[in-house]
């Protein structure tokens, strides 16, 4: 590894620490050091992704339940990527729901590793919800699935608020994902939003779903 690659990795690590802490003083300290190094070595944020390249990955999921689509999209957003649904590829994937995930490689890989695990937990909690509320497992999964997607999006939004707070202090992160999506598709026609109504009691079950790292020693990320 060259000296410059080492410097880039150090700066990227500082930024990751800043974005990963809830303590604004810690975040400011990490970002101040990162920006000092960026200025010293005349680097831009987009140049730091030498080991975490931006790109896209084709994938698909079951077409049976709308809550699955919502959880898939929310999972991608939580890990730091975005999903675009591709109706024109459905025949290629035996009429399953085709999508493409855009973002850093680490986010795409983590989403792919985690999504089946998360969906299985939704179904498990959905069965428990159904038993407790005298509804079918499919109705239970629908309620818990939409509640869980809402939870993931809330967590993703908290991270964005933290990043926006840093940006307001002239510590501006570069988000390349939307630019990549626009370049890949041109002008996209947005898919109609999925209605995500769920009962308030479903959130209790959704909050029991564990979001764990199943790679890297099973380190718990968030409960």
Notes on the protein architecture:
With 223 residues, the protein is mainly alpha-helical. It has two domains: 3-47; 52-222, no CATH class. Helices cover 57% and strands 11% of the residues. The chain has seven helices and five strands. The protein has helices spanning 3-20, 24-40, 66-79, 105-133, 137-168, 177-185, 200-206, and strands at residues 54-61, 82-85, 97-104, 211-212, 220-222. The radius of gyration is 19 Å and the shape is globular. The two termini are 36 Å apart.
Summarize the helices and strands and which ones pair or pack.
Blueprint: H1 3-20, H2 24-40, E1 54-61, H3 66-79, E2 82-85, E3 97-104, H4 105-133, H5 137-168, H6 177-185, H7 200-206, E4 211-212, E5 220-222
Antiparallel strand pairs: 1-3, 2-3, 4-5
Give the C-alpha Rg: 19 Å
Task: Please write the string of helix (H) and strand (E) elements.
Answer: HHEHEEHHHHEE
Tally the structural domains.
2
* Strand arrangement across the biggest beta sheet: 1-3-2
Helix content: 55-70%
What kind of assembly state do the chains in view correspond to?
single chain
- In what range is the share of β-strand residues? 5-15%
Query: What's the count of strands?
Result: 5
Question: Averaging pLDDT over every residue, what do you get?
Answer: 81
Low-confidence segments, ≥5 residues, pLDDT <50? Answer: 169-174, 213-223
Distance between the termini: 36 Å
Structural class: mainly alpha
Q: How many helices?
A: 7
Biggest sheet record: 3 strands, antiparallel
In one word, what is the shape?
Answer: globular
């Amino acid at each position: 590894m060259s000296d410059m690659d080492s410097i880039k990795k150090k700066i990227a690590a500082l930024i990751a620490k800043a974005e990963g802490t809830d303590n604004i003083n810690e975040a400011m300290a990490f970002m101040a050091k990162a920006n000092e190094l960026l200025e010293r070595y005349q680097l831009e944020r987009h140049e730091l992704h030498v080991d975490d390249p931006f790109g896209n990955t084709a994938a698909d999921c079951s077409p049976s339940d709308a809550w699955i689509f919502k959880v898939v999209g929310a999972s991608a957003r939580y890990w730091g990527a975005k999903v675009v649904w591709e109706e024109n590829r459905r025949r290629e994937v035996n009429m399953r729901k085709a999508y493409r995930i855009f973002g850093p490689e680490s986010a795409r890989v983590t989403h792919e590793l985690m999504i089946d695990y998360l969906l299985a937990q939704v179904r498990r909690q959905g069965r428990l919800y159904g038993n407790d509320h005298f509804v079918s497992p499919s109705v239970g999964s629908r309620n818990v699935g939409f509640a869980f997607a809402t939870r993931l999006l809330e967590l993703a939004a908290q991270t964005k608020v933290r990043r926006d707070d840093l940006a307001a202090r002239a510590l501006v992160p570069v988000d390349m994902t939307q630019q990549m999506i626009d370049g890949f598709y041109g002008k996209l026609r947005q898919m109609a939003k999925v209605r995500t109504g769920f009962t308030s009691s479903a959130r209790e079950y959704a909050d029991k779903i564990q979001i764990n790292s199943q790679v890297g020693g099973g380190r718990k990320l968030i409960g």
